[in-house]
Structure to design on (277 residues):
């Protein structure tokens, strides 16, 4: 009887020893066979700043005031290739006044921007240049409180153009930092615009089309978007601050319009990876 118990006890020890040796090897095998499919950097940002708006369809006056903007910025990097994808959503609210303070304009805009980029590592992984092409869609409206006949202007445009970014990662004060400068310039697009003296009633109710879909280029709509940010990794949180310069302007159908925005940015960044086996 004792011999049977000892034999059973020895078998238990042998099985336990196999499990101890087998589990670490399985963990190592799992790590070796799991590959990173893509690296995702997603940020939520709020910008607050000053904006200058002109739209001669509504008024010959320039309007100045404040802008509040929400920015969702996502970047997908693929370790097994040199290509990246970028997706930006923006929601913009602006409240501006003329020089007398008696007239005001309020505007809202939604912008969707997609880009495909080619990465060029410089100085190892610390410095990286990305160059590519972007496509953008803008939908919004601008309302003037003093106008009676034509109180609002529709903002509808789409464009494509080159985009580039430069990332510099470094370590300072025991923290990981990243400086990123991102620039986009539209070179070819299509925008909606009434003609000079034409009302929306004539366009939509009477159906009087008068060159209301206008091709835009840097010659009649020179524009530029620049986003400069600084990321600081604080334990499990990455904090982002930055500066936004957004220059949008056009001169079509004998009408001028521009929106010049300079804003301070603050936000949070999340980095994570997806894997495949």
């Amino acid at each position: 009887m004792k011999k049977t118990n000892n034999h059973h006890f020895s078998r238990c020890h042998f099985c336990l020893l196999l499990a101890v040796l087998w589990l670490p090897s399985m963990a190592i095998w799992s790590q070796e066979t799991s590959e990173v499919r893509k690296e995702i950097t997603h940020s939520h940002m709020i910008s607050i700043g000053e904006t200058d708006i002109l739209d001669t369809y509504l008024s010959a006056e320039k309007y100045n005031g404040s802008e509040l903007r929400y920015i969702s910025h996502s970047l997908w990097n693929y370790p097994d290739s040199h290509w990246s994808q970028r997706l930006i959503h923006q929601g913009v609210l602006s409240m501006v006044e003329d020089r007398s303070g008696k007239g005001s304009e309020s505007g809202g805009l939604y912008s969707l921007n997609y880009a495909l980029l080619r990465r060029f590592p410089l100085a190892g992984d610390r410095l990286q240049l990305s160059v590519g092409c972007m496509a953008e869609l803008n939908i919004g409206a601008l309302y003037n409180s003093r106008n009676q006949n034509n109180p609002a202007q529709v903002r509808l445009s789409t464009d494509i153009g080159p985009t580039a970014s430069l990332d510099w990662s470094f370590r300072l004060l025991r923290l990981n930092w990243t400086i990123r400068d991102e620039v986009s310039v539209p070179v070819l697009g299509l925008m909606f615009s009434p003609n000079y003296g034409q009302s929306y009633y004539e366009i939509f109710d009477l159906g009087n089309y008068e060159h209301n879909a206008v091709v835009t280029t840097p010659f009649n709509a020179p524009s530029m978007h620049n986003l400069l940010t600084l990321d600081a990794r604080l334990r499990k949180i990455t904090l982002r601050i930055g500066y936004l310069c957004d220059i949008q302007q056009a001169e079509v159908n004998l009408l001028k319009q521009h929106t010049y925005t300079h804003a301070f940015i603050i936000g949070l960044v999340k980095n994570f990876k997806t894997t495949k086996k």
